[in-house]
Structure formats: structure tokens, C-alpha cells
Design brief:
Layout: E1 6-7, H1 11-14, E2 18-20, E3 44-52, E4 59-62, E5 67-73, E6 76-81, E7 90-93, E8 98-100, E9 105-110, E10 114-122, E11 130-133
Parallel strand pairs: 1-7
Antiparallel strand pairs: 2-8, 3-10, 4-11, 5-8, 5-10, 6-7, 6-9
Length: 145
């Protein structure tokens, strides 16, 4: 069975999969706004996703839409792979907001009893824009004792 080490999110390490949502203001005024990631399309939706410990039913991807995952509570991980290599999984501790590139295979999973993440995605994540697949044979995703 192949081991998948838990990685710390970094700009370089996560670059093949998307953008870490960070901001910096050179001269903060107290009311600052910065666009970090934008995408064309008919509109975005914001959802709240509650995750249960050690539950990651499948991988999914959105062919024509980016998607953010933003931790709100609990502790979760983000399992990702590049579009062309879905069996080459990487696992990141989701301790910062990220935005996934179009086509990236992904799934989030709580490693605390429960975790909540905010998801911002294109309103069109229909079957024409999305795909799901089982995890590669031999992959077992559990964390903890």
C-alpha cells in the first residue's frame, strides 16, 4: 500500500493544484479589499460543508470551474491530484483557505470529530461540468488512533 504523507500548505507545494488564499496590504487603512482569485462565468455560490471524521467517499473534479475550500472549524485535510494523474494523490492539512484549479481531483475529510469548511464554487457544477471517481485501489484514508 502506498503511503501519502501529510504535507504543510505552501505556495510552491500547492501550485500544481491551485492557489492558497492569502492577502497582504502594504498600507492597511482599516477597510481593505483584495481580489485574490477570479473566474469568468454565470456566477458563484458559497456553501458550508460539514465533514465527519475519516469520511471521504470519492474524488471529484469540476472541469470548467475553480473552487475554494476555506476552513471554518475543526481540523480537516484536503486530498488532491492533478487532472492527468488522478492516482498520484497528495494530502494537505487544510489550515489555510485555498482555491483549486479547474479539473483538479479533490476531496476534503475531517480529522477531528467534525470540521466545517466554506466552499465557493461556480453555480454550474452539474454533471456536464463535474466528474467523480473512486479512490485508487489500495488507498485507505484514516487519521488518528
Amino acid at each position: 500500500m502506498k503511503m501519502h504523507p501529510l504535507e504543510t500548505l505552501s505556495v510552491e507545494g500547492f501550485a500544481p493544484f491551485g492557489t492558497i488564499i492569502e492577502h497582504s496590504f502594504e498600507n492597511p487603512s482599516g477597510r481593505d479589499y483584495q481580489i485574490v482569485v477570479s473566474a469568468p462565468g454565470p456566477g458563484w455560490v458559497i456553501g458550508i460543508l460539514e465533514l465527519s471524521k475519516n469520511v471521504a467517499p470519492f474524488l471529484e473534479r469540476h472541469l470548467y470551474s475553480q473552487e475554494s475550500h476555506e476552513p471554518l472549524s475543526g481540523t480537516s485535510i484536503l486530498i488532491v491530484s492533478e487532472p492527468e494523474t488522478p492516482d498520484d494523490l497528495r494530502v494537505f492539512l487544510l489550515d489555510k483557505p485555498v482555491c483549486l484549479k479547474e479539473g483538479v481531483w479533490h476531496q476534503a475529510m475531517a480529522i477531528s470529530d467534525k470540521a466545517v469548511i466554506k466552499v465557493v464554487e461556480n453555480i454550474d457544477v452539474s454533471s456536464e461540468n463535474s466528474q467523480t471517481r473512486e479512490f485508487p485501489a489500495g488507498v485507505r484514508l484514516t487519521v488518528g488512533i
